[in-house]
């Protein structure tokens, strides 16, 4: 079943069946937007459609690595939204961790295909719709691991660095067309991508505390009403980004020693004090 936007603003969200994508779909639906939600999770999509109401959304199963299927999904969405695409939210992602030398090659390629090729595909296909929608925003989920390459998630981290660089480049390329481009760099968000028990084991305070996914959804909303390029959740993460840029060797050594995050928290505390 599909809804019809009837002139409402419209957002297209990948990875919409759970976590940050789900919370973003809920928030924008509450604000009166028409929601296009795609995911590989059929059951989650059915639940989302029931929750939002079929008249308020177009829910489709989609593997973001399938370009032809992606093009068809966007075409159906454009038909339902009246050709509007106020926000493209590239959120779909997977995580496969472990020492790089021990990772199955299939896992390495899967992370690259979903986390980066999927983003490239979505943006490339959606640019005509974004250009045709005044004030549109192309928004992508990067990661705190795009501040500095993180061990045990090396490939995941590399894809998120790529997303951050792509965001910066396209923000310049698409600006003449009135299309804004931005990303969010979340730290530890309590979503299904985390290993079981990771959120519960996370510190209760500090930059790598577990954060509910609704905070990222609220960031997407804020980003639509702003021209900021990179969004940090929590905002204190900007301290890690600055440190990694200005002092990469020191950051490397502190991360290897397991002291980096405590150092960042102490730095933030001293600044706040």
From TrEMBL:
Keywords of the record: Oxidoreductase
Question: Which GO molecular function, any one, fits this protein according to its record?
Answer: cyclopentanol dehydrogenase activity
User: Record's SUPFAM superfamilies?
Assistant: NAD(P)-binding Rossmann-fold domains
Please give the PROSITE patterns that the UniProt record associates with this protein.
ADH_SHORT
Pfam families referenced in this protein's UniProt entry, alphabetically: adh_short
Q: What is its EC number?
A: 1.1.1.163
Q: Which family does it belong to?
A: Belongs to the short-chain dehydrogenases/reductases (SDR) family.
Please give the name of this protein. Answer: Cyclopentanol dehydrogenase
Q: Which organism is it from?
A: Sphingomonas dokdonensis
Provide the taxonomic classification: Bacteria, Pseudomonadati, Pseudomonadota, Alphaproteobacteria, Sphingomonadales
